[in-house]
Structures are given as C-alpha cells and as structure tokens.
Design brief:
The complex is a heterodimer of chains A (378) and B (603). By secondary structure, chain A is an alpha/beta fold. Chain A has helices at residues 32-45, 70-83, 103-112, 126-131, 138-151, 169-181, 199-203, 213-229, 248-254, 281-290, 303-314, 323-330, 334-337, 339-347, 362-366, 368-374; strands at 2-10, 53-62, 85-96, 116-122, 156-162, 186-191, 233-236, 239-241, 259-262, 267-270, 273-277, 295-300, 321-322, 351-354, 357-360. In chain A, helix 1 (32-45) packs parallel to helix 2, helix 1 (32-45) packs across helix 10 (281-290) and helix 3 crosses helix 5. Chain B is globular. Chain B starts with 8 loop residues before the first strand and ends in an 8-residue tail after the last helix. Classes of the chains: A alpha/beta (378), B alpha+beta (603). Chain B: Belongs to the TRAFAC class translation factor GTPase superfamily. Classic translation factor GTPase family. LepA subfamily.
Chain lengths: 378, 603
C-alpha cells in the first residue's frame, strides 16, 4: 500500500482576519449545510483508492473548521473512512481559533479520531490582536488551550505571526515566552506578508506601515534561538516542534508525496498531476449537484518539474534534501543535474553541502526564494 | 466648350490643428464626391495606420483623387493631398504643399487659430498657395464663427468673410466646400510640352511594386517604360507603372503636367525616392531641379537596445523594415557596457521617436530598452579637431574639450493670455531666450523664444500642455548652433559608471538633474543583497548621492495549504523579472531605470 494524505477545506469564519488571503468567508452561515452536502458528495465520488493507498495524514483546514457545528466535521470524517483506507494511527489535524470550540465539540473531535489540534493565536497582546482583525483575547486562547488539554489532546500546535504592524521585539519575546509556558508540541512562526486584496494590504496602500526587514529578521533569529533553548527544534523555515512531533501532513507537501485536496479550492498532487478544485463556492456546489467535474488547472508534472519541486520544496526543511532519495526517484544525482546552480549557490554561501546532503545556510534561510528560483527551469 | 484636363484639375491640401476636424472633413469630401461607396470607406480613409488613429494624428501623408461633378456640369478631378500634422514633420508638410495650388484652412469655430496651424499657413504662403478658410464645428454651442473670421483676417491677412461655415461631423455645408474648391483653387498650368519635371512628395514601400512614389507633375508627361532620373541621387530607373490614387492604386497610361499620381520603377529603397527630389526624363532632362529639396537630418538621437540581448538580429531586421518606409529614420550599430549590442537611432523629433519605439514593440513584438534622447553637439577639442557627438558616452574627456555648441530652435508658442506667466516661467527654466510677444487678439498671444533643443526633447511639450491646461500650442524650427557651457553627467552604481545613463546637460542644470535622477534611480532599482550607492558625477566630482539599502530577506513563510502551483508561479514571476534586469557590474538594473531620466519632474 502506498501512503496518501488528504486535505479538507472548510471555508467559513466568524470574521476574516485582516492579513488573510485564504479562501474563506464570513456571514455565509446559511451555506454551511449545503456546502457539507456537496463536500461529502465529492468525497463519495472520489475514485476508489482503498486497495492501493493507505491514508496516513488528514488535515482539516480553513477558514476555521471549528467554527461550524461539530456534527458536520464528524460526518466528513465518517464519509472519508467509508471511501478511503485510513491508517488507525493516521495523524488527523484540525485547525481552530480561540472561542470557536468548547468541551463538547473537543470531545466530539477526539472521539471521531482527530488527534492533533492547531490553534491560531498569532500574538499575545490583545491590542495587536484587535488591530489585525482577530476576534479573541489571549485569555480566551488560554482557555481553549486548557480545554483541549483537559479533553485529552496531547499534540497541539500554535500558529504565530511576527512582523505585525506595531509589533515590537518585546511583544514578540513576550509572545514566545507565554506560549512556551503552555508547552505545546508544535509551533508555527510565520513572517507577515502583505497579500494583495487583504484588508491590511488595502489599508497600507500608502505605506504608512512599512515592514522593517531588520526587525523582522531580528524576530526570526530570536525565535530560532529561544525556541531551540526551550526544546523546540526548527525543522522547516517557519516550523518548530518537540522531538518527533513534526507535522507529518506538512512534510508530505515538502517531500513530493501524494495528497488529495477535498472541498472548495483545495489542491491535489496525485499520480503525477497537480490540480485544484473550483474556487467559487456557488459554482462548486452547483457543479457537484450536477455531477460536473470541479477539478481545474490539471497539470501533469514533467520530470524536470518534479526535480525542481523536489529541491525547492525539500530545501524548506532545515535538514534539506538527500541525494539518495533524489536518486531513488529520478535515477540521477542532483549534484549532476544542477551542478552549475549548486556550485554557484555554495560559492555565495546560500547552501551547504555535506555528504550527499544539501541544505540552506543561515543566509539561505533569509533568501530562500532566491535559492529556490535557481532550480526552476528557464 | 470643353475644358482641358488641367482646367478640370484642382490640387489642394487641408491645413488644420489636431482635433480641428481635418480627417473628418476629408472623409466627407470623399463621401460627397461619390468615388467610394460607404462600405469601402474604412473609418477614416486617409489615416491608415492604427497608431495614428489612436493618437488622432496623421503621420504619413497620402493623396487621394476625387471625381466631382460640379454645379457647372463639368467633371473635376480633385487631388487631396494629406499632410502630417506635427512639428517633427515640417519638411514633409512643405513638400506636400509644394504639390498643390491651394490649401483649405480649417479652423475650429470654438477655438480659433493655433500656433501649429499658423506654422503650416506660413509654409503654404511660402509655396504661394491660395488659402481658403473654412470654419468648422459650427454646430458646437460654443462656436463663434464671427470672431474666428475676424481672427483669420487679422492674423493671416486673408479675406475670410463668406468662408464656408460647416460641420464636418454633422455633414453641414459640405457642398459649399466642394464648389469653393472649384472656384477658388487655381487650376494648374498646361506645361505638357516641357521636359519632365515631377516633385516627389511621399513614398512608401510596397511588397509587390517596390517603392511607390507619390508625385506631382509640374512640367511634361510621364508614362510606363520611360527612363527617369532622380536628380538628387542621379539614379536612373525605368517606369513600371504610373497611376492615380483612387480608393486603391489605379494604373493609367500617363500623367501630364498638373496631375498628382504615383509611379513605381522596381526601386528597392525609399531612400532612392527622397521627398522633395525632382524626377526628370533621363534622355531629355530638365535644366534645373525644383527648389526646396533638403536632405532630412535627424535632430534627436537615442540608443535602442533589445531587452533580451539575443533579440539583436530581430531588432535589426525590424529597423530595416521600418526604414523601407521611413527615409527619415536612421540607425547604426552601437554597443554599451550596460546594455550590450543595440543601435543609435536618429529621429526627426520626439514624436517620431515615440512612434518608432511603439511600432517596434507593437508590430515586431520587441521588448526594448531606450536610452535618454540626445541632440547632436558640436565639440571642438583642445587640439583644434571638431567632432559631432550624438551619444553622451562618446564625449571626449573634459580635459580634451575646448568648447561645445548646442542646437538652438526658434519656437512659437500660442496660448490664451492668462498663461503668459507660466509659459515664460517654463521657457526661463529651460534656458529660453525671450525674443518677442504679440497679442493676436485681446485674449491670445504668440510668444517667440529661442530655446536649446536639448531642453525641449525630454518633456517640454508635456510640461507646456499641463501648465496651460492643454490650451497652448507649440511649433519650432532649428535655428543655429550656439556655444554653451555644457557638462557630461555620469551616473555611478555601486562605484561603476553606467554608460547608458550618462547625459549632457547645461552646467546650471547639472546639480538639480543629478539630484532628481539619483532619487528616481533609488525608486526604480530594487534592493539587492548589498547596499548600493547611486552617485551623480560631473567632472569627477560627486554632485548627488542616494543609497539603495540592502535587502534583508526574500522568503515565503507560508505554504498555502499545499498550493504548490501558486508558490511555483510566484518564483517563476520573480525569476522572469530578474531575467529582464540588466547586469551592470554586480548590480541588477531594471529596464525602466534607463528611461528614468526621461521622466524627471523638473519642478
């Protein structure tokens, strides 16, 4: 049996955060029930892989999946179990926001097999939270966290963002300090990027808030050092975990392993094809009701594409990539395929080679795009 | 009594300011004479290039022959010769006018006469044409025909009472225009018995015929098989075809004195049929060529480089093709350390330059980097040698330069009188020398200035337009070379000189220019891994400096829920952008940086 991962997209939120450009909506409560009907139908219609693939990870993301009633989530997991072979040990994650789950719903998630909870906190300071459109305080976050622990979740991630408007280095230090005290198993620390179309982007068109790159890097380096000292090791550009508590689902993306995305706008990489689902929610529902396909932009990756992706996705991992795995996939060595690029990058101290392994240097971590770009085909 | 061919021929042009309705009237005349059916008429018959249509101006001239049955019962041939409507093409206009006996002067009933119209009226008067005023746009609520008629009489000094009051757009009084042409435009004289003397007033390259030259027969006759000589180049050709301009080229047996038509003679290059040249019969030549021939000299030079160095040959091919139809376009290969292989191109003026650039980009799909335009400077070296410099990079080192001269133009600016102050300020800023000012009526003035050409080739016209809310019109001609205190301003990026960014500027302007160009470069050059000093240097001295701070990070933090395609696209876009940059030393410079000097706001 081959390994498979599933991503389930739940595009509903109580309120959209000002920095968020993910596919999600607020004030669409009336659509929830009909959306889940469509989603379950999509899952039922997915070609049968039961004998060939074993599902090792499931990630329920959004939006805020815990914002909808837990009965919908239970139904989705049941539908998945009916249509896929799911490993009893599979990592099943759900994203949540403080204040959107209570003891009852947490028990429900736990009972259906969800064993990893990812909570979006972003930062500790209530005034900063308000400024980025978050609808909770850090007190509410702590409350949610304690509830989750009490229900029996042992694998919990907390999402954080640095480089926010008016966020000082002290704010960031306080955030990390307070969060580490709770001893989650996993931390994601994202550097803020102003995405076009977001509230923050629009409100900043005249650049009143410039992202201070010096401060951003200061925060980033501090995170690495502080978290390392607190028992979290960095395993990807933005991700930190206690030993053996990495997010297996994320590793799937970076290691070019197959995954099927289900739900609105979800992305898949399956049997060599990359494709994505319809992004318009009305169309998504309508097409499923009519039995039309919702897959768009289907593209078969060439060997060259795959090689490039193997490298630029793999290099996101702190340990980097190993030639032996590359050889197993492509029957050639990346040291040969990208000799010129690798030599140049090593010379300029962007990457480090040791014994069949390639990884980003400290400088490479700051300029990862530049490194990745070098491996794209012309 | 039957009239002779000459007696039934009328050759005329239309003189008008842009937007005063020249093309619309031309269309109406063509429609009314019934030569073409409505269906045959493209939107505006005389403007046949998209680019012109978009800009609302006519660049290449073209003639058309109309057949008109007049009220007297006779059938007349009208040769309407179109003229380009821009200051860059004054010479071509004058040659077109030389092919006519009369000119219709179209004046907007609401706006009155403009400077550019005046310039062409003077050209028409020089060519001794009968000028026939026509007041257009009388349908506009703001039309004031009486005032405009008085203005024409006051300024030009020709009778304008009784001028046809028309609306070309609404088709009002077009018949009157046709009858006026019959009555007022003088018929050409019959000089059939003299040796051939024909004026070339336009030419273009046709894939099948070779060069097709538009000609006016002044004396004699021309027919197929005749051996003719171009008097400027002494080249001899045998005529393949003669004809007239109906809605297409219409071959006929012969053209006689007074006729306007075309010839083809398997000529390979428009340069061999120079506008203004005289065609005569090789075996029976005329004594003297027609007066007024000038070899066209480009006034504005700029380097044109392919954005992608591998497209150099494509660029050469495209320029070759454009030159087939544009004898005033000149180019020769040049190299730049910053930009690689390209061409130094000479243009009649800024508009001509813009048109060529746009055509290269649009019709030939080329991505170009253009350097700031330059004029030709006369440089006297300390050893007494005199050279001409059209590329700032070729200016000898300061120590070898004794002195320099720059071209000066004589300019007329016409505007409502409330703008006199701002126009004077502008001309002052551009080192203009005030000559005189005339009120042409209570509220309108003509200002005459001598201006250095290098002060007007950048953005003078734009500045003039914006400061006068579009009411000023402007016309110039090159007057002379004058000695001037000029310096070369160089730009250093990270300590390395960028040859393509150098320009020549008056010493009094160097500091401000240096400051604004360094500021602009700081804006357009993206931050890189290291700090980049941007310096402006005159004679080895730094006069302005900016610093482009180093980039501290370039990394996508998030993974977008497995959306690898998006990530890949972002990286591809970034890589594409990087590829389009020019490597200057170790600095990557985007294309727009080389044009930055063009877009400096002088204020």
């Amino acid at each position: 049996m081959k390994d498979l991962s599933l991503y389930i997209h739940i595009p509903f939120c109580k309120q959209k955060c000002y920095y968020c450009d993910f596919l999600s909506f607020s004030n669409e409560e009336d659509t929830v029930s009909i959306y889940f009907d469509a989603l379950n139908r999509e899952i039922n219609n997915t070609p049968n892989t039961k004998d060939e693939y074993l599902v090792k990870t499931i990630f329920i993301g959004g939006g805020t999946p815990t914002y909808v009633h837990f009965k919908y989530i239970i139904k989705v997991i049941e539908t998945i179990k009916n249509n896929f072979s799911v490993d009893p040990e599979a990592e099943i994650s759900i994203e949540s926001n403080p204040g959107t789950c209570n003891i009852d719903s947490l028990y429900a998630y736990k009972n259906i097999g969800i064993n990893r909870l990812s909570i979006g906190l972003q930062c500790w300071q209530n005034n900063l939270l308000k400024n980025i459109g978050r609808i909770h305080t850090h007190e509410e976050f702590v409350n949610s966290y304690i509830n989750a622990k009490q229900v029996g979740f042992t694998n919990i991630n907390i999402d954080l963002i640095f480089g926010l408007p008016n966020q000082s280095i002290s704010h960031w230090m306080e955030t990390l300090y307070e969060v580490c005290k709770l001893e989650p198993t996993h931390l994601s620390c994202y550097s803020l990027k102003l995405e076009e179309g977001t509230v923050l982007y629009k409100s900043n068109l005249s650049n009143q808030f410039t992202i201070d790159e010096e401060l951003d890097r200061h925060m980033y380096y501090y995170s690495i050092e502080y978290l390392n000292n607190s028992g979290y090791y960095q395993y990807e550009i933005s991700n930190f975990a206690k030993p053996n508590m990495e997010c297996n689902h994320n590793l799937v993306y970076w290691e070019l392993k197959p995954y099927i995305g289900l739900g609105l706008g979800a992305h898949s990489y399956f049997e060599g094809y990359r494709y994505s689902n319809e992004e318009n929610i009305k169309q998504y529902i309508h097409k499923i009701q009519n039995g039309d396909t919702i897959n768009t932009a289907k593209m078969l990756l060439s060997v060259e594409d795959m090689k490039a992706e193997f490298i630029f996705l793999g290099l996101r991992k702190i340990h980097g990539i190993y030639d032996k795995f590359y050889r197993r996939m492509f029957n050639s060595s990346f040291f040969d395929d990208y000799e010129k690029e690798i030599n140049q990058l090593v010379k300029e101290d962007y990457i480090i080679i040791t014994d069949g392994n390639l990884k980003l240097s400290k400088k490479g971590l700051d300029f990862a795009n530049f490194v990745f770009m070098s491996f794209l085909n012309d | 009594m039957t009239l002779s061919k000459q007696e039934r021929t009328r050759n005329f042009s239309i003189i008008a300011h842009i937007d005063h309705g020249k093309s619309t009237l031309a269309d109406r005349l063509i429609q009314k004479t019934g030569l073409l059916t409505e269906r045959e008429m493209s939107n505006q018959v005389l403007d046949n290039m998209d680019l012109e249509r978009e800009r609302g101006i006519t660049i290449k001239l073209q003639a058309v022959r109309l057949v008109y049955k007049a009220n007297d019962g006779e059938e007349y041939f009208f040769n309407l010769i179109d003229t380009p409507g821009h200051v860059d093409f004054t010479y071509e206009v004058s040659r077109s006018l030389a092919a006519c006996e009369g000119a219709l002067l179209i004046v907007d009933a609401a706006q009155g006469i403009e400077a550019q119209t005046m310039a062409n009226v003077y050209l028409a008067l020089e060519n001794e044409l009968e000028i026939i005023p026509i007041i257009n746009k009388i349908d506009l609520p703001s039309a004031n025909p009486e005032m405009v008629i008085n203005e024409i009489e006051d300024i030009i000094g020709i009778e304008a009472q009784g001028a046809p009051l028309i609306s070309a757009k609404e088709g009002i009084n077009i018949e009157e225009v046709l009858e006026t042409i019959v009555k007022k435009v003088p018929a050409p004289l019959n000089k059939d018995h003299l040796p051939l003397k024909a004026l070339i007033f336009d030419s273009y390259y046709d894939q099948y015929r070779g060069v097709v030259a538009s000609i006016r027969i002044k004396e004699g006759k021309i027919n197929k098989g005749m051996k003719v000589k171009m008097m400027a180049t002494n080249k001899v050709y045998e005529i393949d075809e003669v004809g007239v301009f109906a809605n297409t080229l219409l071959p006929i047996n012969e053209l006689i004195s007074g006729d306007v038509g075309y010839i083809s003679a398997s000529i390979k290059n428009v340069k061999d049929t120079r506008v203004g040249d005289t065609i005569t019969e090789a075996l029976n030549p005329t004594d003297e060529a027609l007066p007024g021939y000038k070899k066209i000299i480009p006034m504005v030079y700029s380097g044109i480089y392919p954005a992608d160095g591998s497209k150099y040959d494509d660029l050469r091919e495209a320029l070759d093709k454009l030159q087939l139809n544009d004898a005033s376009l000149m180019f020769e290969p040049e190299t730049s350390i910053a930009l690689g292989f390209g061409f130094r191109c000479g243009f009649l003026g800024l508009l001509h330059m813009e048109i060529i650039q746009e055509r290269l980009e649009r019709e030939y799909n080329l991505d170009l980097v253009t350097t700031a335009p330059s004029v030709i400077y006369n440089v006297t070296k300390t050893n007494g040698e005199e050279i001409q410099v059209d590329n700032p990079a070729n200016l000898p080192p300061t120590v070898e330069v004794s002195h320099m001269e720059e071209p000066i133009v004589n300019a007329h600016i016409m505007a409502p009188s409330q703008y006199v102050g701002v126009i004077m300020d502008l001309c002052q800023e551009r080192r203009g020398e005030y000559i005189t000012m005339n009120y042409i009526e209570d509220t309108r003035v003509v200002l005459e200035y001598d201006l250095p050409l290098n002060e007007i080739i950048y953005d003078f016209f734009d500045a003039l337009k914006s400061r006068t809310k579009g009411y000023a019109s402007f016309d110039y001609e090159v007057k002379e070379y004058r000695r001037s205190d000029l310096v070369k301003l160089d730009i250093l990026l990270n300590g390395e000189m960028v040859d393509a960014l150098s320009f020549i500027v008056h010493r009094s302007k160097a500091y401000n220019r240096g400051r604004s160009i360094t500021e602009k470069l700081k804006e357009v050059i993206p931050r890189q891994m290291f700090e980049i000093p941007v310096q402006a240097i005159v004679g080895g001295k730094v006069i302005a400096r900016e610093t482009i701070r180093a980039m501290r990070k370039d990394v996508l933090a998030k993974c977008y829920g497995g959306d690898i395609s998006r990530k890949r696209k972002l990286l591809e876009k970034q890589k594409e952008g990087k590829k389009r940059m020019r490597q200057v030393g170790n600095v990557e410079v985007p294309q727009e940086a080389f044009m930055a000097v063009l877009k400096l706001d002088d204020k």
